[in-house]
Write a structure and sequence with these properties.
The structure holds two protein chains of two kinds. By secondary structure, chain A is an alpha+beta fold. In chain A, 20% of the residues lie in helices and 34% in strands. In chain A, α2 crosses α7. In chain B, a hairpin with a 4-residue loop joins β1 and β2.
Chain lengths: 371, 125
């Protein structure tokens, strides 16, 4: 049985084409993926990301515990800070990528991928049981929050024009990248976080489920002068792809490490013991066997997940994601390739075609999210 | 659009017969299911195509699909406009978004295709 987010009816009303995704019925598109992609790059788009999982970690050992289970360092997080991080297995493979929001000195909000909610919660319980200092509680609050992303160059204007967000209107312009603000509203707390997954400026708004539709409708109405568009999973994927933001199940999985994925900036090996550290230290010393790289295809075929990357007759890699990039107007892909072949002459096998590819730097599209 | 003159395959191609030539495209339903189409690979003029075998591919952002030949024959024309404007398939699937014309080699194959009512029933409309 597929779950629905609180915005299900709003999606149908907006002409959303619903598809199964990570156990939810989610809108893949409304007007069309490319149109929605362009709306986010040029104006502002709204995404329902309520399917994402939320955990509350609380107790006096919250931050010691989190620093033990994640690869990034949350010990220096400011009181209004958010941290992007990986969480690894002992062998260095990625359990998930996640956001850690510091709500208080003894309380964190952790946002995880919908497809990994059960796996992550199990892993985090296991990691907690291994600690000597375990004054920490884990609570799966995934059903207690709806989440709406407001992304695009006009996102700030839209946030300030939305009546429900009036209590933080004067603060919107001063919220730095990866910081948050919140306020109490009838129905519960609303958190606005300067984060996102598109390569554009914007916010993610945590809202009580009972008020999600009201907020969505207000954002659509207040956004009309800015050309706001509801945007589905299709646009979310092409936007994050151009910005080379990893997607779990594509660039990240249990088999690949954050170092292979090019996420070494998320791995703080100088931090005390954390899950996966020994394996990652070894990999750092010996060098990664594989590397996530970007390619441009010669031609307009699309290299899709799982297609083989070839060096002559030898398979040296596998495509993780690929599409015809709507903003850059090129056929691009990301792939894991054997480290000694990344700069060789390579092809991608697109069904019957052997398509030459040229390595291009990641990200394909320079993020404007911090601007 | 006058659908009376069109025949349909279960793979969502449409066919309009004019003399011994068939113009072939995909339906609005198929184009909608595929989403944004970014590239089409068509057979060359003069190529032989065989009924219900793949004669090309349709690359959409989210997936790739085969283009099947509804009837056997020789390709007499391809829609060159799709080279620069593959989105014509999304915006005008029964008109400017056509794919190829085929000189029909076996008219009996047309009898195996669906009329509009049968096709609508198949897609649950």
């Amino acid at each position: 049985m597929l779950k629905r987010t609180p915005l299900y009816d709003a999606h149908l009303a907006a002409g959303g084409k619903m598809v199964p995704f990570a156990g939810f019925e989610m809108p893949v598109s409304y007007a069309g993926g490319i149109e929605e992609h362009t709306a986010v790059r040029e104006r502002v788009g709204l995404f329902d990301v309520s399917h994402m999982g939320e955990f509350i970690v609380s107790g006096p050992d919250t931050w010691t515990y989190l620093n033990h289970v994640i690869t990034n360092d949350c010990s220096k997080l400011p009181p209004d800070g958010v941290l992007y991080t990986a969480m690894c297995h002992d062998n260095g493979g990625v359990v998930d990528d996640l956001l850690v929001t510091k709500l208080a000195e003894d309380r964190a909000l952790v946002v995880v991928n919908a497809s990994n909610i059960d796996k992550d919660f199990g892993h985090m319980k296991w990691a907690a049981s291994n600690l000597s200092r375990k004054r920490v509680e884990l609570h799966n609050a995934s059903d207690e929050w709806a989440l709406i992303a407001v992304q695009g160059p006009r996102a700030f204007e839209l946030m300030k024009a939305t009546p429900m967000l009036a209590p933080v209107r004067d603060q919107i312009d001063s919220v730095s990248y990866y910081r948050w603000r919140s306020f109490e509203s009838p129905g519960g707390r609303i958190i606005v976080s300067r984060t996102g997954y598109t390569g554009e400026r914007g916010f993610e708004i945590f809202v009580p489920p009972a008020r999600a539709t009201e907020l969505w409708n207000e954002l659509r109405a207040a956004g009309a002068p800015f050309g706001v568009a509801p945007a589905g999973l299709g646009a979310r994927d092409t936007l994050r792809f151009e910005a080379a933001l990893c997607l779990y199940g594509h660039e990240l999985d249990d088999e690949h490490t954050p170092l292979e994925a090019g996420l070494s900036w998320l791995v703080k090996l100088d931090k005390p013991e954390f899950v996966g550290r020994a394996a990652l230290v070894r990999e750092r010393e010996k060098g990664s066997k594989k590397k996530l790289v970007g390619f441009e295809l010669d031609g307009r075929n699309i290299a899709r997940q799982g297609y083989a990357v070839m060096r002559g007759d030898a398979m040296v890699g596998k495509v993780t994601s690929g599409t015809h990039a709507p903003t850059l107007k090129k056929s691009l892909c990301m792939a894991y390739v054997d480290a000694d072949s990344v700069d060789a002459e390579l092809t991608v096998q697109v069904r019957a075609h052997t398509v030459p590819v040229t390595r291009v730097p990641l990200p394909f599209y320079k993020s404007r999210a911090r601007d | 659009m006058d659908f009376k003159n069109l025949k349909f395959t279960k793979e969502h191609e449409w066919v309009r017969v004019d003399g011994d030539e068939a113009t072939i495209g995909i339906t609005d339903f198929a184009a909608g299911e595929l989403g944004d189409i970014v590239y089409v690979e068509l057979p060359k003029v003069g190529a032989n195509v065989t009924a219900m075998q793949s004669m090309g591919t349709i690359e959409a952002v989210k997936t790739v699909a085969d283009l099947f030949a509804p009837v056997s024959g020789v390709v007499t024309a391809i829609n060159g406009a799709l080279e620069q404007g593959p989105d014509l398939v999304n915006t005008d699937p029964f008109g400017d978004g056509w794919f190829v014309r085929v000189k029909i080699s076996n008219r009996k194959e047309l009898d195996g295709l669906m009329d509009h009512a049968a096709y609508q029933a198949m897609i649950g409309k």
